[in-house]
Give the backbone structure.
Amino acid sequence: MAERDPREIDLEKVRASQAGDREAFDYLIEKYKDVVYAVAYRFARDPDLAMDLAQDTFIRAYKGIKSFKGRSSFSTWLYRIAMNTCIDFTRKHSRSVASQAVPEEVAEYADSEPITRKPTRGPSKQVLTKELGEQIQDAIEALPEYHKSVFVLYEIEGMSYKEIADVVGCSIGTVMSRLHYARKKLRVMLEPYVDGGRRVEAADGENGKI
């Protein structure tokens, strides 16, 4: 017997939720709680805040479940709510809680090794790596909300252009343009730290210190 399409199961649970079946909505929460939390954490950079944002996302989804018409998949609809919840949060906070670690998918934009993957080779590089991590997070936080959203969904969450377009409500061309802008802006903002990192690498390789 062929497995059922997950989207059909989601739609079935949505219809049941719209009819007042709380257990059906609990199924959707259990299925998507991890991905919603992951999106929230990328914005909040704090476990407790991310949990609050994820909870707010599901509260909004539950209150608005009857407005779901099935024009997109439930996951896309839920992602849209999660992104809007996170954007509302960032608008109310000029700066998110300081990052404890930098996602390795983001660290590559500094042309550097992921800072959480390997131990550093000396005090000078440890200081630089910590500073670079802080600057990467600051740079992402400084992006305009609509560019930051596209960057997070594509580079970190791994969504396609089409999926992102459905989530943020724009064309695929606009998604590509915003992603290009975000990458370019990050490279410009991080350039001094990338160059600094290369100088430290060279010095460490020559005599173990700078």
Summary: Residues 41 and 47 are 7 Å apart (CA to CA). DSSP finds nine helices and no strands in the chain. The chain has a mean pLDDT of 76.
